Automatic annotation (TrEMBL):
Biological source species: Kozakia baliensis
Function according to Swiss-Prot or TrEMBL: Nucleotidyltransferase involved in the post-translational modification of proteins. It can catalyze the addition of adenosine monophosphate (AMP) or uridine monophosphate (UMP) to a protein, resulting in modifications known as AMPylation and UMPylation.
Keywords on record: ATP-binding, Magnesium, Manganese, Metal-binding, Nucleotide-binding, Nucleotidyltransferase, Transferase
EC number: 2.7.7.-, 2.7.7.108
GO molecular function: AMPylase activity; ATP binding; magnesium ion binding; manganese ion binding
Active-site annotation: 246
Name of the gene encoding the protein in the UniProt record: ydiU
Residues annotated as binding Mg(2+): 247, 256
Cofactor(s) in the UniProt record: Mg(2+); Mn(2+)
Native organism taxonomy: Bacteria, Pseudomonadati, Pseudomonadota, Alphaproteobacteria, Acetobacterales
Name listed for the protein in its UniProt record: Protein nucleotidyltransferase YdiU
PANTHER family for this protein: PROTEIN ADENYLYLTRANSFERASE SELO, MITOCHONDRIAL (PTHR32057)
Catalytic activity: L-seryl-[protein] + UTP = O-(5'-uridylyl)-L-seryl-[protein] + diphosphate; L-histidyl-[protein] + UTP = N(tele)-(5'-uridylyl)-L-histidyl-[protein] + diphosphate; L-tyrosyl-[protein] + ATP = O-(5'-adenylyl)-L-tyrosyl-[protein] + diphosphate; L-threonyl-[protein] + ATP = 3-O-(5'-adenylyl)-L-threonyl-[protein] + diphosphate
Coiled-coil regions, chain positions: none
Family: Belongs to the SELO family.
């Protein structure tokens, strides 16, 4: 099996070739056969010895030309001019069954020229977390990188303690990040930026080529894609946790499931990540941070937007100012659908905010609230600390529903199709990781994967929020 690598057509300063680091005893713990099929890859080959050698980063099939990509990035607001794939290796790309080019990358496959002080490795826990959450997101219809396979290495990686090592094979629409553009901009590499922009347009937004100003049209398309992505996260209670510009993808996919988590009880200020001390990436801050990241992308594109600096800034600002519009429209549409409304009308925003206010006051479980409203609104009452306030809100909602006049059963079915019963709850992820790390027991991982990839089906065991003893307060990058 040979993967092509379209990045190697770009100037050499975008990437670095890197020696492979064979691992001691690779063992396949998960293979996503439906995804392999979608990509036109031979799943049986992937599961065999040559496949395993490739998936563990030990040995590549003849003709493969893997590279580590260069990028920079703002991490928690601080600019770092050189990051890059320090523990990832882009094996190459394939054209999938829909004619779309997709990247296949290993994460945790050993040091590269961009490793700085890191060991280039990943621990099993974060690999399982990324596998579960990215596949759950895909099943929930959220643009996301995918998990193709996970392999244990038979080696330990040293974090706080010695942990089993693993490698994730990840698939993405591309691995271009806002930070990829920043890497070139900070080096005043205008030719590089032009080549990169052309590549990104070609790959993700070909319609921008026809625009009067293709760079501006490209920028606007990224703004739109990110706004819609973040609206989707917000509608599910997803907290990315590390929305640095190097974790902001140009294609509009969710990338880097480091310290991510889903809300249990609704709290707009919620932060899980142990490294997010200031709450920069708290749940409710995500749209604002998305816009901030896109402003950083605009800065890199200015010289390509217009030779005249002032005109370039004005055009980019106008485009960026549309973010809020894109976001609010997408968010309103998502929330209306969650409440069983087919169209949005004046007053819906207040109706939605009214519900969130009550949820915040009661620390109501995000996922259960919407699922209960989809099934039997009376059962939602128990989630609220002031049932009479909920009843008052419900009366407003019912009056609004009556105006639309959809038949009740049809509306409930539509709501059940957008309000998941199952999200990958943090306490369950921790259980899965514990079983795998402590006992080499992967059965809980497999069971949870099956549950989170059929998120609209009732499964009380996975739907249940954590008890006070089970609650997980913090997630760790745990690189
Ligand atoms: N163990 C490690 N060894 C070397 N470099 C690392 C390691 N962990 C993280 N890095 C590097 O630190 C930077 C920031 O890491 P971050 O956690 O955002 O990315 P990541 O999780 O490794 O990968 P991705 O964004 O591709 O999902 C990246 O340049 C990354 O390659
Ligand atoms: Mg990252």
């Amino acid at each position: 099996m040979i993967l092509t690598n379209s990045y190697t057509r770009l100037p050499e300063r975008f990437f670095a070739r890197s020696a492979l680091t064979p691992v001691a005893a690779p063992h396949l713990i998960a293979l996503n056969r439906p995804l392999a099929e979608e990509l036109g890859l031979d799943a049986d080959w992937l599961a065999g010895p040559e496949g395993l050698a490739m998936l563990s980063g030990s040995e590549m099939p003849e003709g493969t030309d893997p590279v580590a990509l260069a990028y920079a990035g703002h991490q928690f607001g601080q600019f770092v001019p050189q990051l890059g794939d320090g523990r990832a290796l882009l094996l190459g790309d394939v054209i999938d069954r829909h004619g779309v080019r997709r990247d296949v990358q290993l994460k945790g496959s050993g040091p590269t020229p961009f490793s700085r002080r890191g060991d280039g490795r990943a621990a099993l826990g974060p690999v399982l977390r990324e596998y579960l959450v990215s596949e759950a997101m895909a099943a929930l219809g959220v643009p996301t990188t995918r998990a193709l396979a996970a392999v244990t290495t038979g080696e330990t990686v040293l974090r706080m303690t010695a942990l089993p090592g693993a490698v994730l094979a990840r698939v993405a629409a591309s691995h271009l990040r806002v930070g990829t553009f920043q890497f070139l901009a900070v080096r005043d590499d205008l030719d590089g930026l032009r080549a990169l922009t052309d590549y990104a347009i070609e790959r993700h937004y070909p319609e921008a080529r026809e625009a009067a100003n293709p760079t501006l049209a490209f920028y606007d398309a990224v703004v739109n894609a990110q706004a819609r992505l973040i609206a989707r996260w917000m509608s599910l209670g997803f907290i990315h946790g590390v929305m640095n510009t190097d974790n902001t993808s140009i294609s509009g996919e969710t990338i880097d499931y480091g310290p991510c988590a889903f809300l249990d009880e609704y709290d707009p200020g919620k932060v899980f990540s142990s490294i997010d001390q200031g709450g920069r990436y708290a749940y409710a801050n995500q749209p604002r941070i998305g816009m901030w990241n896109l402003a950083r992308l605009a800065e890199t594109l200015l010289p390509l937007i217009d030779e005249d600096a002032e005109r370039a800034v004005a055009a980019a600002q106008e485009s960026l100012s549309r973010f809020l519009n894109y976001y609010e429209n997408a968010h309103l549409a998502e929330m209306c659908a969650k409440l069983g409304l087919k169209t949005a009308e004046d007053g819906d925003k207040e109706l939605i905010e009214g519900l969130f206010d009550l949820m915040a006051k009661s620390a109501a479980d995000f996922t259960l609230t919407f699922r209960a409203l989809s099934e039997n609104p009376d059962s939602a009452r128990a989630l609220f600390s002031a049932p009479e306030d909920f009843e008052a809100w419900k009366a407003r909602w019912k009056a609004r529903l009556a105006r639309e006049g959809t038949e009740d059963e049809a509306r409930r079915a539509a709501m059940r199709a957008v309000n998941p019963a199952i999200i990958p709850r943090n306490h369950r992820i921790e259980e899965v990781i514990d079983a795998a790390v402590q006992r080499e027991d992967f059965a809980p991982f497999e069971a949870m994967l099956a549950a989170v990839t059929t998120p609209y089906e009732e499964r009380p065991d996975y739907a249940r929020p954590p008890s006070p003893q089970e609650r997980v307060w913090e997630t760790f990058c745990g690189t």
